[in-house]
Amino acid sequence: GQQVMQIPQYQHVQEGEDFTTYCNSSTTLSNIQWYKQRPGGHPVFLIQLVKSGEVKKQKRLTFQFGEAKKNSSLHITATQTTDVGTYFCAGPTRTDNAGNMLTFGGGTRLMVKP
Amino acid sequence: GAVVSQHPSRVICKSGTSVKIECRSLDFQATTMFWYRQFPKQSLMLMATSNEGSKATYEQGVEKDKFLINHASLTLSTLTVTSAHPEDSSFYICSAPAGGEGTDTQYFGPGTRLTVL
Lengths: 114, 117
Hints:
Oligomer: heterodimer
Distance between the termini of chain A: 41 Å
């Protein structure tokens, strides 16, 4: 079945340093979504990328969808303590997106030292 | 964005008892809801898809007789953990697709932390 892998699993950074998490799918995706889960909280939708090679920005966060639509990345510039949490990528489980099911990556847990 | 609520947020029960968790879409209708289980520091594991007016679809390895799902209305799905045991202790989260560009993104409830003694 479809697999979505994320690296790294964990990342410790000093506040102000940049951070990147990478997401790779075993299959071509019609879209990719990113979610953030704060410690003790629930996943919150961040963004969805649909087009090949698409790049979207949200303040210090830059999201990219690969040309082959099988990989994606999330880059945070100048991390802050508020960025702490686990970042998950997710793609439709079925190629026709029937049922709206998502397959989640394992997540990257970001820890920021003040 | 769309709001999904879950109740209770935290429950502690004795082994052998049943626990019901409610998931509600507050400002939209959801013909489909998803139930996930999350162990500490791990990813979300899809347990089942709850379908309004029909039977739930369970993922491989999930016991349908143990995790009873009922989707009685367009805004409410319930998950009942029957005869709970300590190994059922986990964080249970529901979600509902609520529309988006090209495909439905998912909005998650706040989760229910179940501890079985």
